[in-house]
Write a structure and sequence with these properties.
The chain has three domains: 4-17 and 299-434, no CATH class; 33-175, Sandwich (Immunoglobulin-like), CATH 2.60.40; 191-278, Neocarzinostatin-like (Immunoglobulin-like, Sandwich). Helices cover 0% and strands 51% of the residues. The protein has strands at 4-15, 33-40, 50-61, 70-79, 95-105, 109-114, 131-138, 143-158, 160-168, 177-181, 191-194, 198-199, 203-210, 217-224, 227-236, 243-249, 256-261, 270-275, 277-278, 300-304, 308-310, 320-325, 329-333, 341-347, 350-351, 357-358, 363-371, 380-381, 385-386, 392-397, 405-417, 424-434. The strands form seven sheets. Strands 2, 3, 4, 5, 6, 7, 8, 9 and 10 form a nine-stranded antiparallel β-sheet that branches. It is elongated and about 105 Å long. Keywords: Signal.
Length: 435
């Protein structure tokens, strides 16, 4: 069943002042790079500009995105060219970094990244510790995308609000990571319908298909479970991608009919199976009884444990991570076919008091997925990272010779709340889609 949708309301409550057919580019590792920077200390410090070497690493998740995916970028400034501009020691959690990551290759531009207030105490004139900043961007084209550290600003908020602004000289900085984006995947639109759901051996069943590739040779095949039978025929898709065929079915073990393009079965270019049963009209010997048992194919479905998530409060002025756990989603794949499934999620902006909002890109998750014992498919969790309005993958199972089972998908949630977000409740809606 395609396009099942499930809405989960994520209430960030209490953000208070708080022929014979058979059913049958990796990312470059992030590199720490040195780059020349020109840093201007805050004017009240009375210090001259500082020219020096900075060191940083840029990493991404997921490592192998598709066009349309939201990618989370992490900029780790391991060594700043500047240091605490005052003689006053800075206490913990008063440093807020922000920066840009420069994109190159098939996609250009800059990604704004920010970091939380999370630093150890820093002595007067002491070096800044490593600073971690994150942001997101949406992949718009397939191919190699390079990421380089860009300009950064280190903000301190103790006694005075001070900015140390550092720009890349002789830029751009060296490439820290390269990812290769693949083209966007699209749902398989192919359809299959039968003129009847059962018939006697040797009976011809009318088969109709739609949304196949125009002009393609389509094989129509009867199957027994996940195995092909000897009953098959072929047809040619018309200019609109439709076809009709008449398939004579003899095998008593037949459970369904599939149609596919190409020399062998591939769920990506196939439709079905559509359930079909051959009536066993074999004469019964005198004094005997024939016992029939059948297994009926089911559907692909999902349920959730609840529709609201209460996330932890954060303090006004501090901001930071408001955390929670996704209500558990249970997926049941009882289709008895060869296709896997994908469970994705997309979230709206979090609306708050007086028209205030926290962007959808501020919500990230860490997915997990578990298959119930005895399931035929293996469940894979999506990559940790931002969810956003473009969406991200929560869990998947692959295509296979035979698939199915029961699965539970969960995710840890974290909303990065800006420090001075107005007191009140912020709510967004996370929509899960199973295909």
């Amino acid at each position: 069943m395609r396009g099942r949708r499930l809405a989960a309301v994520l209430g960030a409550a209490a953000l208070m002042v708080g022929g014979g057919a058979v059913l049958a580019a990796p990312a470059q590792a992030a590199t720490a790079v040195d780059f020349q920077t020109h840093c201007i200390p805050p004017a009240v410090a009375g210090l001259p500009p500082i020219d020096g070497v900075s060191n940083a690493t840029v990493s991404v998740a997921p490592a192998n995105p598709k066009v349309g995916d939201t990618v989370t970028v992490t900029y780790t400034l391991t060594k700043a060219a500047a240091s605490n501009p005052t003689d006053i020691a800075l206490p913990a959690d008063v440093v807020t970094p922000r920066a840009n990551v420069v994109l190159g290759g098939v996609q250009t531009g800059a990604v704004a990244v920010t970091g939380p207030k999370s630093n150890p105490p820093i002595p007067g004139k002491g070096s800044f510790p490593p600073l971690v900043m994150t942001g997101t961007f949406v992949v718009t084209a397939p191919g190699a995308i390079t990421l380089s550290p860009g300009d950064y600003t280190i903000h301190t908020s103790y006694i005075l609000e001070l900015d140390t602004v550092c720009t890349v000289t002789d830029g751009p900085a060296p490439v820290s990571e390269t990812v290769t984006a693949s083209p966007a995947t699209t749902p398989n639109p192919r359809t299959l319908a039968l003129g009847s759901a059962q018939g006697d051996p040797g009976t011809a069943v009318a088969v109709a298909g739609g949304h196949f590739t125009a002009g393609a040779t389509v094989t129509v095949l009867a199957i027994a479970g996940s195995n092909p039978t000897a009953d098959m025929t072929s047809a040619t898709a018309d200019a609109q991608g439709g076809f009709t065929a008449s398939l004579v079915v003899n095998d008593l073990a037949t459970t369904g009919i599939v149609a596919f393009e190409g020399a062998s079965y591939d769920p990506a270019t196939a439709a079905g199976p559509a359930a079909y049963k051959v009536n066993d009209n074999t004469p019964i010997p005198p004094g005997s009884q024939k016992l029939n048992a059948s297994v009926t194919a089911g559907t692909l479905s999902m349920t959730q444990a609840g529709d609201t998530v209460e996330m932890t409060p954060v303090n006004f002025g501090d901001g930071g991570a408001s955390t929670g756990a996704l209500q558990t989603v249970t997926v049941k794949d009882f289709r008895g076919g060869a296709a896997g499934w994908s469970l994705t999620g997309a979230v709206t902006d979090f609306k708050g008091p007086g028209g205030a909002a926290i962007g959808a890109d501020k919500l990230s998750w860490t997915p997990s997925c578990t298959a119930k014992a005895g399931s035929l498919s293996v469940c894979a969790a999506g990559s940790p990272g931002a969810v956003g309005t473009a969406g991200a993958t929560l869990a998947t199972t692959p295509n296979g010779t035979v698939t199915g089972g029961e699965f539970t998908a969960d995710a840890g949630l974290s909303l990065n709340v800006p420090a001075y977000s107005g007191p009140g409740t912020y709510s967004g809606v996370l929509t899960l889609t199973l295909t």
